[in-house]
Amino acid sequence: MSSSSAERTPVAKGNEGTVASAPASMDPSVPKKIVSAIPKQRYPIGGKVSLPHFRDYVIENFNVDLSDRREGVPVPNEYPAPVPCPEFLADIRGHGIDCTQNGEDRLIRCHGQTLHDVHMMRTGTFKRIPDVVLFPTSHEQVEQIVQSANKRNVVLIPYGGGTSVSGSVTCPEGETRPIAALDTSQMNRMLWIDRQNLVACFEAGIVGQDLERELRQLGFTVGHEPDSYEFSTLGGWVATRASGMKKNVYGNIEDLLVRVKMVTSKGVLERSLAVPRVSCGPDFNHLVLGSEGTLGVITEVVIKIRPLPQVKRYGSLVFPDFGSGIRCLREVARERLQPASIRLIDNEQFVFGQALKIPGGPLATVGEKLKKVYLTRWKRLQLDRIAIATLLFEGHDAQVKQHEAKIFAIAKRYGGFSAGSSNGEKGYILTFVIAYIRDLALDYSIVAESFETSVSWDRCEALCTNVKSCVRKECAKHNIQHYLISCRVTQTYDAGACVYFYFGFNHAGFSNPVTIYEEIENKARDEILASGGSISHHHGVGKIRSRWYPQSVSDVGVQLYKATKRELDPNNIFAAGNLIPAQLQDTNEPTSLKAKL
């Protein structure tokens, strides 16, 4: 890519690319927003007074008493006293960096969005929270923070959007050193855009929907749309090797990444050129990707952009059963015909989605009855077996029409047929809504969470069957009678697919529901690995999946990571405790001190 300033449009502070926002410390309602009711402005069912079908579904499937709502505890009045770090704070203030030791600000940044995290916040059982929150506004300020943290022996945990579902931002309970949460929310600018080479540079703290909005105003898109798109940040995407729902057209984050800047304890790690490809030894971009805050702080990212598509069209397909749908998706992938998004949901999720339909008038009721007659009598399908695929096409009109025709022809060979664009759009949006429903369900004694994996095509259907069977057996062992276990195929590749599982149960009468949930999910993860699946497709490892990391990368892989960690972070200030199990990690004692001993 040319480095000529004439080809890059710089975007200065306060200019069109700025996404201005007050420090998160000024907004104590942040956690309430994240676990609030479904936003009415963004989703069709948001703000609806009544969803009778969903009410009936919840009562029938989870045996829930909707009159017994139990909300979480209020925000506490007292917080753990921060571990003293006066010299560090003096350094920070001397550099003009905003910081706070306010209890609520610290509490907000002690957790992500795992079931364990949310339950901990609802019950007020948090054990370790950051001692100070820092708000750098530039790469240079991050360098100053890292230098001071090494000098004063302070732990740094980078914090982006707080959407982690791996426990990666939680504070290690045994850490005795001061912990600083490095909040990147004020590093949220587009620094420049290169229209000719279709790349743009952003600060790492920009939130997904803000990044996309800024680009759309200029006629471009990144196209990276993970489920956490509303809150997650660009730096977080890189740190966890994220994947988006439209990866078939735009790529995963590793495909979009051109250049990344990361501040380590040894200095700044950055490639000298931003070119399409380079043969120059190991690619250190991939050292940063998936590092989960353990090697340094990501500050700036150069990513690929694309012109906005002319056409955006949804579609859906009905299959006789889940297996037929998998075989269809496999054939679509074999011929490399995937649209921007193609996702397959099993029958359990289909029923769940139908329950969320907004009631219509008499004509709508008649229409629904006719659809059932068409499916059961004309198409001779069993409603308790059918599976649904949702489609999203993006591109030129003629291109999209041709694409649709080819996919519908493949679907027909596997017993599939079109179910219309409206169902496709609703199914696509449901992905974003599920997280809000999960948090609302906690008020009614339902614990639920999702977990994902990647698997080869030849093992995909068997893995889905085995994991669901495993969860059912574990529920029986724990005498859990009212639960849901379902799955969907969300991303497809030449050699395999990503599979998501959703599991929740009524925990009325159980004193330790989250512990039980975690035990069952761990059994499911063991079954995933036994069935040929991976530790994670895009959620990352964090702390909750670290027990499986060694078997996933080998002992040599663990030692290679630890050697890299020792080189880039000799004083272990990036001691988030992610990736490798606690018993395999080096102690918090600085390497320099060990050498003296």
UniProtKB/TrEMBL annotation:
Cofactor (UniProt): FAD
Entry's localization field: Peroxisome
Keyword Ion transport: no
Record-linked SUPFAM superfamilies: FAD-binding/transporter-associated domain-like, FAD-linked oxidases, C-terminal domain
Sites where the protein binds FAD: 158-164, 227-233, 240-243, 292-298
Superkingdom in the source lineage: Eukaryota
Positions that bind substrate: 438
Alphabetical list of Pfam families matching this protein: FAD-oxidase_C, FAD_binding_4
InterPro entries (UniProt xref): Alkyl-DHAP_Synthase, FAD-bd_oxidored_4_C, FAD-bd_PCMH, FAD-bd_PCMH-like_sf, FAD-bd_PCMH_sub1, FAD-bd_PCMH_sub2, FAD-linked_Oxase-like_C, Oxid_FAD_bind_N
Keyword set includes Ribonucleoprotein: no
Pathway: Glycerolipid metabolism; ether lipid biosynthesis
UniProt keyword list: FAD, Flavoprotein, Lipid biosynthesis, Lipid metabolism, Peroxisome, Transferase
Annotated active site: 500 (proton donor/acceptor)
Enzyme class: transferase
Site residues, Important for enzyme activity: 343
Record region (Disordered): 1-30
Gene3D superfamilies assigned to the protein according to its UniProt record, in alphabetical order: 3.30.300.330, 3.30.465.10, 3.30.70.3450, Uridine Diphospho-n-acetylenolpyruvylglucosamine Reductase, domain 2, Vanillyl-alcohol Oxidase, Chain A, domain 4
EC number: 2.5.1.26
Substrates-to-products reaction catalysed: a long chain fatty alcohol + a 1-acylglycerone 3-phosphate = a 1-O-alkylglycerone 3-phosphate + a long-chain fatty acid + H(+)
GO cellular component terms, semicolon-separated: peroxisome
Segments forming domain FAD-binding PCMH-type: 126-308
Function: Catalyzes the exchange of an acyl for a long-chain alkyl group and the formation of the ether bond in the biosynthesis of ether phospholipids.
Subunit composition and interactions: Homodimer.
Family membership: Belongs to the FAD-binding oxidoreductase/transferase type 4 family.
Name the record gives this protein: Alkylglycerone-phosphate synthase
Natural source organism: Anopheles quadriannulatus
